[in-house]
Amino acid sequence: MKALFQKRRRGFLGRCSKYLRYVLNDHFVLVLMVFLGFLSLQYRQLLIAFPENTWPLILIVLAISFLILFSGRMATYLEEADQIFLLTREKEVLEEFEAASRRSFVLWSGLQVLLQLLLLPIYLKLGLEIWMVVVYIVVLLVAKYFLVKYQLATYQQQGVLNWSTAIQDEQKRKQTILRFFALFTTVKGISATVKPRRYLDGILRLLHSRQTWFYLYLRAFLRAGDYFGLSLRLFLLILLSLVAIDEAWLSLGLVLVFHYLLLFQLLGLYKHYDYQYLTQLYPLDKKRKMKDFQHLLRVILYGLLVVETVVAQLFIQEKIMVAILPIVCIFLHEVYLPIKLKKID
């Protein structure tokens, strides 16, 4: 049993490592290094000019600490078929769950300690002694231990493994990781879910169009998978970059990176209906499918670009830098997008 779960763990980690090379490409690493340098500089400035009113800073530090405290799921590597084929070896499976809980505690506790060491200068500036910080870290580690034990207990009812809950949680954990990699490259194995989102029905009625593929892709964008949610999250990151970062070049650089990631992610929507054979029976020209899809992407991306440009005008002082934003985005929409669409067609 141990060999089986080790094989699954190595297989999934090996798969993630293959996708990781697409994440850590030259451009992203360069942006990441610049961003980390910016954060280091801002951290240094914060320590030099420490604010007199420390309550907002205390709340932020506590929020960061509790965020990582409640982060992380236990990696069980359980699969759907195990509910049938491993039912007779349930006791051994529970032993593997115990080992998985220990690995989860070690991993996330290490990250918690590393985070607290990074925040140590702030604690000292707040007037805390070293022993106080050590006690605080120990309290967080103990809390993490009980959280992991609680998560392990949720998979058992009177010593009997709750197979359905454990399998669903493991699938959600894997899907979360794979969706992150899908921001940078095409990832296999991502399951699509349909969400009604009835509050968006007004948009569908408002934009009802005789262009069949445009309407179908719009419905898929609003309801299928995580396209709408991902677009919303990336758009919020764009607005946060424009509002919170004072350096114009860094702010606009991040905006362009997030805008490109959004465009790249929406390309996956093109093949959403390929598995539905009824769509292949439509008496429609295949070129119409590509045109309608490109039209939908332009509506979404140019709509976001208008908001981004207005916000940039309000929060960025260097207007010359702001002019770069629409120029680069128009290049992505009118030059890069058609090239990518020809490759995926």
TrEMBL record:
Transmembrane segments: 20-41, 53-70, 105-124, 130-148, 227-245, 251-270, 296-316, 322-339
Protein name: ABC transporter permease
Domain of life: Bacteria
GO cellular component: membrane
Record-linked Pfam families: EcsB
Entry keywords, A to Z: Membrane, Transmembrane, Transmembrane helix
